[in-house]
Amino acid sequence: MSSWLPLSPGERSVAIEVLVHGPLSRTGLARRLDLSQGSLTRLTKPLIESGLLVEVAEAGAPAEGRQGRPSQPLDVVAESRSFLGFKITADTVYGVVTTLRSDVVARLDRPLPGRDPARVADLLAEMTAELAEGRPALAGIGIGVGGLVRERAVVGESPFLQWRNVPLAELVQARTGLPVVVENDVAALVEAETWFGAGRGLDRFVVLTIGAGIGYGLVLGGKRVSCAEENRGFGGHWIIDPHGPLTPDGERGSAVSLLTIPSIRYQIRAATGRDVTYEEILAGAAAGEPMAFRVIDEAARALGTLVAQIANFAMPQKILLAGEGVGLMDVAGDTVREAIRGRRHPLAAPVSLETKVSDFHDWARGAAVLAIQVLVLGAARA
User: InterPro entries under this entry (predicted)?
Assistant: First the structure.
């Protein structure tokens, strides 16, 4: 993957600011980066000459009303490069094509042909060929996997895929000839929301995901906090109610036991003998079905407690709740918000909680953003 090289640190800062927040006027750009107009002119000139940045018409301004070239906003050509993103689940691979600004322009899903790494890599190569057809300047591939990923290349451990020490980036790169970056799927989603989504421009930001598992990502100083333990499944050991349900996954009363889709389904199956879907459980709770209502009400209070604890300790400007389990908010959002208020100081500012109805293509888009970052930053960001 060719990167934005050679660029000085100052030029790169300008280019990233325009990519993430643009189009931007020169005055606005100078203010955001705390630069003088002279310094900004010096930094932007080579970027414009190389075609990395372009001058665009100011929105709503007629051509004859412009005040000369310096007043024209600067932007990137988002369609100049294409990126592929893949999200691998236990039974399906979800793929997307995005622009340089992470807008999804194509999607493709395929069933997983088993869990042998070589066969999975073959499938990713086939999907790459199909998605890349007719796309401009394909620049790289990002892959999101649930589990522990080392050096953005090796899947150290993935319970969903039953993998250990799989060099996935190497396998896919050998088959496609394209640069490949692999990351934990939650980390990829956090990066995407930080650069292009709900966390854009925020100093302190949290992503909390509920679905097959519990995911957590923390952004401080506008950058995702990366640590060795972030992909170790903290939710299985974050005890919300020590007297809560005991499920096959997670400690008794943990976030996993109370909130994940498999655990909620397990509780209903253990109590009724019926195997029902998560959507059916939510519908039952909304209709007042006693068992479904009890389990979902308990899950909602657990979610409110978890959000309040995160807000109390991390003090984020916003918490984004995402994942395939967020339908809980549609049925029991009031209970969640009541629990948040009950576990915060009475004078504490309200928690800015944003819910994102997402599917696995959003996770795939997050993986594509990893590839965008490699291009823009010049190296994989740990």
Answer: ATPase_NBD, ROK, WH-like_DNA-bd_sf, WH_DNA-bd_sf
pLDDT, position 61: 52
Q: Which fold does the domain 80-191+361-377 belong to in CATH?
A: Nucleotidyltransferase; domain 5 (3.30.420)
- Residues recorded for the chain: 382
What is the radius of gyration, based on Cα positions, of the chain?
23
Beta-carbon contacts of 18 under 8 Å, excluding residues fewer than 6 positions away, are: 24, 29, 53, 74, 75, 76
What is the Cα–Cα distance from 296 to 224, expressed in whole angstroms?
31
CA-to-CA distance for 351 and 374, rounded, in angstroms? Answer: 33
User: How is residue 216 written in tokens?
Assistant: 């957590």
Q: What is the 3-state secondary structure (H, E, C) of 306-347?
A: HHHHHHHHHCCCEEEEECCCCHHHHHHHHHHHHHHHHCCCCC
Helix axes 9-21, 37-49, angle to 10 degrees: 80
Sign of the C-alpha dihedral, residues 17, 370, 97, 356?
negative
pLDDT tens digits for range 34-66: 999 889 989 988 888 888 889 887 765 554 444
- Within the chain, all domains assigned CATH 1.10.10.10 are found at 9-76
Instruction: State the Cα angle at 321 between 320 and 325, rounded to 5°.
Output: 160
335, 297 Cβ separation under 8 angstroms: yes
User: What six digits make up the tokens of 343?
Assistant: 């576990």
CATH code: domain 9-76 is 1.10.10.10
CATH among 1.25.40.10, 3.50.50.60, 3.30.420.40, 3.30.40.10 for 201-355: 3.30.420.40
Q: Is the dihedral of CA 332, 338, 341, 342 positive or negative?
A: negative
The CA distances from residue 195 to 16, 20, 94, 125, 186, in Å, are 10, 6, 21, 27, 14
**What predicted TM-score, i.e. pTM, was given to this entire model?**
0.87
Specify the DSSP class assigned to residue 24. B
Residue 152 CB-half CA count within 13 A: 17
Domain with CATH 3.30.420.40 in the chain: 80-191+361-377, 201-355
Quick one: which of 77, 55, 74 has its CA closest to 4? Answer: 77
Q: Is the separation of the CB atoms in 105 and 97 below 8 Å?
A: yes
Q: Report how far residue 298's alpha carbon sits from residue 263's, in angstroms, rounded to the nearest whole number.
A: 12
